[in-house]
Specification:
Elements (H helix, E strand, L loop, with lengths): L2 H16 L6 E6 L2 E7 L2 H4 L6 H13 L7 E7 L3 H9 L4 E6 L6 H9 L8 E3 L4 H16 L2
Helix pairs in contact: 1-6, 4-5
Length: 148
């Protein structure tokens, strides 16, 4: 785990915040090389699957010309939803580092998706590695959205 990548994911989350998206940023790294850095674009693109993680997987796969993202790590400012956790597992990413847990989903549910070995290998996940900074940005975003 390298906090410099969480810093870059946080910068991506700020970009999302500035355009009215839920501030989630994401970085995919392989052997200390950044393959993708993205942020949510669901609202701006009017597409339910344009979460930061899905966009990053597409970008990294394109860069490697391979859908298998073996030996890659993903840094996300907010832990993944079930859709994104499944996509990360299908892409064969090895480690997930999350800035903060997502209160909407139980960490157990996400761990269950990632830990099954029925399809692909287990994905390791670490929660709350940047809880204060990522949490404050999310709180600020939702506070502004609720009072507009």
């Amino acid at each position: 785990m390298n906090m410099k990548y969480m810093d870059i994911a946080y910068e991506e989350a700020l970009k999302a915040y500035e355009i009215g998206e839920i501030p989630v940023g994401c970085v995919i790294v392989k052997k200390d090389e950044i393959l993708a850095k993205t942020h949510n674009l669901k609202e701006n693109n009017n597409c339910a699957i344009d979460h930061a993680e899905v966009l990053a997987i597409k970008e990294a796969s394109s860069k490697l010309n391979n859908w298998r993202l073996d030996e890659c790590d993903i840094y996300i400012t907010l832990s993944p939803c079930p859709m994104c956790a499944s996509a990360i597992k299908q892409a064969r990413i090895h480690n997930i580092y999350c800035g903060i847990s997502n209160d909407t989903y139980d960490d157990k549910l996400i761990k269950n998706i990632l830990s099954t070995t029925d399809n692909n290998s287990e994905v390791n996940i670490d929660f709350n590695i940047d809880k204060t900074r990522c949490g404050n940005l999310l709180k600020k975003f939702f506070k502004l959205r609720r009072f507009d």
